[in-house]
Amino acid sequence: MRVLLDECLPRRLKQELPGHEVATVPEAGWAGRKNGELLKLAAGRFDVFVTIDASIPNQQDVSRLPFVVVTLHASNNRIEALRPLVPRLLEALKVALPGQRIQIRA
Asked: Which secondary structure element, helix H or strand E, spans residue 59, and what is its range?
C-alpha cells in the first residue's frame, strides 16, 4: 500500500512499515498545508493517510475520500510511544477500504 505519514509523525515510523511504500508529508513537498488541502493532494496518490491529529476525521468527510484515514492515539508523537501501535496498524492496512476511518489506541 502507498502510505502517507502526516508531518506530525516521526519520519522513523517509515521503517516500522515494511512491505509498504511510505512517504512523509514533507517528503511529498506538502509541509505546512491545511488538512483539507493535504487530503485533496493525497487523493489518487496514496491508499492510506496516517496521523495522530484526531481532529481530521471530525473536520473532513472521510467517507468521501478515496483512501483510508488512520488515527493513532498515543501519549505523544515520539517513535517510542507509537511503536506499540504498529502491529495493529499493519493489521489494519491489510483490510482497510477507501473512505474508512480507523482509530488505533494504545
From this structure: helix 56-59
Q: Which positions ≥6 away from 53 have C-beta within 8 Å?
A: 6, 8, 35, 71
Q: Which phi-psi region, left, alpha or beta, contains residue 36 (left: φ > 0; alpha: ψ -120 to 50)?
A: alpha
Q: Which residue has the cell 515520539?
A: 78
Please state the separation of Cα 79 from the chain's center in Å.
Answer: 14
13-20 long-range Cβ contacts below 8 angstroms, 24+ apart: 13/50, 13/79, 13/82, 13/86, 16/79, 16/82, 16/83, 16/86, 17/86, 17/89, 17/90, 17/93, 20/93
The model's pLDDT over 29-48, given as tens digits with 9 standing for 90+, comes to 999 999 999 999 999 999 99
Measured CA to CA, the distance from residue 2 to residue 44 in angstroms comes to 10
Of 39, 42, 50, the residue nearest 17 (C-alpha): 50
pTM value is 0.95
Question: What's the rounded Cα separation, in Å, for the pair 102 and 53?
Answer: 12
